[in-house]
Amino acid sequence: MAPGYRSRFAVEDRKQGLLFPAVLLAVLWAALPALGQAPCGCEQDEAIDICYLSIEDYCHSGSTFLNCEYSFDGIFMESGLVAKLQSSQNFGPGGIAGCEVALKRLPPITGVETLDSCDCDIVFIGQFPVGLPSGELDLSISTVPDATLETIREWSALCESNLVIVTQAEANPWGYITENENINPNRPAGEVSLSIFDGAFGALASFQQGGAFQGVFTRTPSTGAEILAKDALGRPTVVLDAATNDIILADVGILCSNGAGEVTVGGGVFNNNDILACNLFALGCRIAEGISFSNAQAMLCPGDSTLLPDGAFVSLPGRYVDTLVAANGCDSLIETEVRVMEVDTVLFSPPLCEGDVYSITLNGNTYDVNNPVGEEVLLTEQGCDSVVRVSLFYAPLSYDTVRVSGCRGDGFSLNVGGVVYNENNPSGQEILANRWGCDSTVTIGLFFEPQDTSLLDFERCEGEQLVFDGKSYEAGTTTALSFPTAGNCDSVVVIRVAANPLPKVGVDSVEEVTLGEPFAFDYGLAPDLQVQWSPADALSCPDCPAPELLPGKFPGLVQLTVVDSKGCSSSYDIAISYICNPYIPNAFSPNDDGRNDRFRAYFACPIEGFRLEIYGRWGNLAYQTEDPEAGWDGRINGRPAPAGVYAYVVTIRENGREKTASGEVNLLR
């Protein structure tokens, strides 16, 4: 059994020199029956029989199998925990556990005699939840009848070596209620009589619960329970029942594999849950064998020794396990923790300052400024020798001066001993403690140098930037720059960039020009403005206030740029739309002589749309076209039209508007 395991019959003796009588009392006490339980003697079987409830018997409703499988013959344990219990390296002769186990499926239980007839040493119940109509499982209710669970509990109470390992809803008859509230990881609960965290298969600091349900105990019986493990919030997850000495788990997933828990598949012991599960059943072996456990402690001075229960004297620190035979013939494991107290030479040197009047008397010898060093032998509370070396050191007082230069107006301050020194309180003296705790007189002096300020004014047009010392500054902004002076104080340079407004003139953004009529861009510009017009080749003058549009020029956009006396400029775009009055002749002679053979309209500027319609004497449509270059050749339906007067209608679209011109044309032959 690993150190730390102790039955409820254990007796501890933590007084020096009284170890062996206490151990003897523990052995005699362990031989007595527990209240309500018979001692039952010691198990001498070759193997410990672990009986279990089968899913074949309890995990179904009528002919419907519920697929719970949280027992030794279910998929969540059969390939993991069961494989480890059946591995001879773990639970076989000479295995790690020190015991061999045999798994037995229990028949239907009709009474305590059913378990006795199967020679059960340990009963593992597993989990058998109730199936809901929705297909889900209700983990708070067990399909195992209450009468069956009560019979198993009754069997456990008959003998202290009868052990039951039970989980979740199946533990309700023991007085436990579980809820799905666990927060991983689960850790030891502190000093306990039986440790599942340090056993035959090793030690672990924590373990994980697995699966969709992760339980904690929200109710324990009034008869009491010793907490063996708790979750991250300190709530119990594994307990030792005080009334029956049974082990109760809040979540069966602690022992499960295949997604329902962390136990690995196969007989190997690899992770914390493997170690925990194997430690738990190794502990079950010991309990089933009727072995009792007790702890004792001995505190020794260096060089002393103590008597162990087996009659041996030891002087080295450590844990010593002795196996004795109690009056009932059962083994009693007694673990003795021997501690050797550390008694070192102590240097006694209190903090002292020059001028202090101090003395100390040890063993009748007085130590002071005249006798500062010596050595005495004293006894500790445990009666061990302790050498005390006395060394009185009188630390000197100290004097310091603090001189700090600052700049006027920068808000610099210094806190010395809780007193603030600044430009208004630049000097003083404070008493502080030096590194030995003695008085240190500090003289403070602060000196403040003046600061310089310069103003630099610039002008820029709106939207422009000033580039100064490699940096850009927007027009209309003021920026303060700090430069260190020789005295390390800031010299402030203020850069102020004035924003001159841009010149503004009243310009129409769109102008209509009627061809054949003179047009001037006259906006009443001020005489002090510099003027630039473009395109220059379409205007009578590129730099005069009111240039005229030249005949035969049709610019779609005219741009005006004006510059004021401060060099600020503004530009304006003027869109030009043209009104075209077409030239339409009043006669034509389609005789193929190459002159005036077609009737058409002539335009001096671009148009956006065109349609020509010719009507005969009786109002019939003789010709029409939308091509301004085509014209009428004097034919109607391919035949020469007779000479005479014909009416015409010309429809044009310009500047997004339509207009119509009509009249008569004389066809000559």
Tell me what the structure shows:
The protein has 7 domains: 1-42 and 290-342, no CATH class; 44-289, 3-Layer(aba) Sandwich (Rossmann fold); 346-395, no CATH class; 398-449, no CATH class; 452-500, no CATH class; 510-579, Immunoglobulin-like; 587-667, Immunoglobulin-like (Sandwich). 9% of the residues lie in helices and 38% in strands. It has 7 helices and 49 strands. An 8-stranded mixed sheet has the order 4-1-5-8-16-15-14-10, with helices on both faces.
Write the layout of secondary structure elements.
Blueprint (H helix, E strand, L loop, with lengths): L18 H12 L17 E5 L2 H4 L1 E2 L2 E2 L15 H5 L2 H4 L9 E5 L6 H6 L4 E3 L4 E3 L5 E6 L3 H13 L4 E5 L9 E3 L7 E2 L9 E2 L2 E2 L12 E4 L5 E6 L5 E6 L5 E3 L22 H17 L3 E9 L5 E2 L5 E2 L3 E8 L5 E10 L5 E3 L2 E3 L6 E3 L2 E3 L5 E7 L5 E7 L1 E3 L2 E10 L6 E3 L2 E3 L5 E7 L5 E11 L2 E10 L3 E4 L2 E4 L3 E7 L5 E11 L9 E5 L15 E5 L22 E7 L5 E11 L7 E2 L20 E7 L5 E5 L9 E2 L2 E2 L3 E11 L2 E11 L2
State the main characteristics:
eight-stranded mixed beta sheet, disordered N terminus, mainly beta, Rossmann fold, 669 residues, flat, 7 helices, five-stranded mixed beta sheet, 38% strand
Give unreliable regions as ranges.
1-36
Kindly report the spatial arrangement of strands forming the biggest sheet: 4-1-5-8-16-15-14-10
CATH 4th-level superfamily of the largest domain: Class I glutamine amidotransferase (GATase) domain
CATH topology of the largest domain, which one? Rossmann fold
* Domain unit count: 7
Number of helices: 7
